[in-house]
Fold:
Amino acid sequence: MKYRISIFILYCFLAACSTETSINQPDTNEETASFSFIEKNVFRTRCAFSGCHASDTKSANLDLSTTNAYSNLVNVKSILSTDGLNRVEPGNSQASFLIKVLDGSNPTKMPLNGAPLDQATIDLIAKWIDEGAQNN
Structure:
């Protein structure tokens, strides 16, 4: 019985990592380039929910749960960056490790073993960062 439960949990985990590739965006980018929108529609559903970056797992010491996501991302050095980049460098998406792992310019591509985010979603996250990465 434990074996079947373990297989079921593994199946759910893998399915969560690979099913949803894009987010449903409202009609205006003005509304969507906010941390609250990205946290709710990307981090919570694709990163923390899948078990990779939840409070109890913290892969790469990154907790993207609702209450901890912002403080774990903005102006925090990435332990995976060989260049010493911050996970999110406010005002500069190109110097943000998060964008590098999402767009494939870093060998560690996220989501790990899952369907990649679509370009519109990556662009939305980059826009939020370029606009100052506010906790809005």
